[in-house]
């Protein structure tokens, strides 16, 4: 496939063709990733997440320009929310990042979330691998901006940057554990707006509370001492991570570039920490494990749809609605049919 060679050479047209294939068709995605997987594993994947209105797109735009001044090649994947009715998306991030157009060292791809609730599209992982194989030094992944539920990025990125901004809500917004615990770096953007001091103080308070909780319990959320977790499927040579990354809190004004160079340097500091502590390998392990798990779930649902007669599934749903059986019993029945097909 000539376009596979083109991806390896970093040709924009070939990269675009490969990502289009992984978005459009599962079988095509398998072929693309099988051809490119051996060339991946070098890029630094940086997730940018936070609530709508916090300035994610503007910050990604400025970060890309900052890294380009350092001669790094930057790939950008911007996830836009899809219409629940048509499946379409505005893909407005391309409009916001139009001043990156024409730079051969930057590749921007907008992708629709297509109903995925974790802040990423289902094909984002495959698109990241395409950009990785194409030789980009950094891959910036901007998530939808759905708030607390948007934690998939922590399982995808090496470094997760969580944005907040003054004036987006009351102080409770900044203490939602689901979004705060995934942060490797916290950023208060729009730091020139009224109320920035209050937003910074709220986040500082929560960071301090997190440190005290970690010291008392040994549990540090996303930054647990044993980065592999406790699932028991880690390689024998896995070792505890030495030291601990202390989550920094920065202030930026993305529209003017204020504080962005400092953020870019802290992101590089986090990469150096990951590599020196051994956590880079840990996160690669966890990311690959989760990706395999997700592929298995998808395949099981396809198997379920193809092996269980539609009439039987409809009967089970009706039986649950009419309280003849409970949902667990219905799921057991469907699982046993699908399992029998596997065996």
Structure description:
Strand 5 (159-164), helix 8 (177-180) and strand 6 form a beta-alpha-beta unit. Residues 83-89, 115-119, 224-230 and 236-241 have low confidence and may be disordered. The protein has 343 residues and is α/β, with parallel strands linked by helices. It has 13 helices and 7 strands. It folds into 2 domains: 38-226 and 233-277, P-loop containing nucleotide triphosphate hydrolases (Rossmann fold); 308-342, no CATH class. A 7-stranded parallel β-sheet has the order 3-2-4-1-5-6-7, with helices on both faces. It has helices at residues 2-8, 12-24, 26-36, 56-69, 93-96, 124-133, 152-156, 177-180, 196-217, 260-277, 279-307, 310-321, 327-342; strands spanning 44-49, 74-80, 106-112, 138-142, 159-164, 185-188, 249-251. Helix content is 48%, strand content 11%. It is globular, with a radius of gyration of 22 Å. The longest helix has 29 residues, at 279-307.
Give the arrangement of secondary structure elements.
Layout: H1 2-8, H2 12-24, H3 26-36, E1 44-49, H4 56-69, E2 74-80, H5 93-96, E3 106-112, H6 124-133, E4 138-142, H7 152-156, E5 159-164, H8 177-180, E6 185-188, H9 196-217, E7 249-251, H10 260-277, H11 279-307, H12 310-321, H13 327-342
Parallel strand pairs: 1-4, 1-5, 2-3, 2-4, 5-6, 6-7
Query: Roughly what fraction of the amino acids lie in strands?
Result: 5-15%
CATH architecture name of the largest domain: 3-Layer(aba) Sandwich
Q: Determine the N-to-C terminus distance.
A: 36 Å
- In order across it, which strands form the biggest sheet? 3-2-4-1-5-6-7
Give the SSE order as H and E letters: HHHEHEHEHEHEHEHEHHHH
Helix fraction by DSSP (H/I, runs of at least 4): 40-55%
Poorly predicted parts: 83-89, 115-119, 224-230, 236-241
Counting structural domains, the number is 2
Query: In oligomeric terms, what are we looking at?
Result: single chain
- Give a quick account of the main beta sheet: strands, pairing sense, barrel closure: 7 strands, parallel
Number of helices: 13
CATH topology of the largest domain: Rossmann fold
Give the C-level CATH assignment of the largest domain.
Answer: Alpha Beta
Shape: globular
Fourth-level CATH superfamily of the largest domain: P-loop containing nucleotide triphosphate hydrolases
- The helix-and-strand class reads alpha/beta
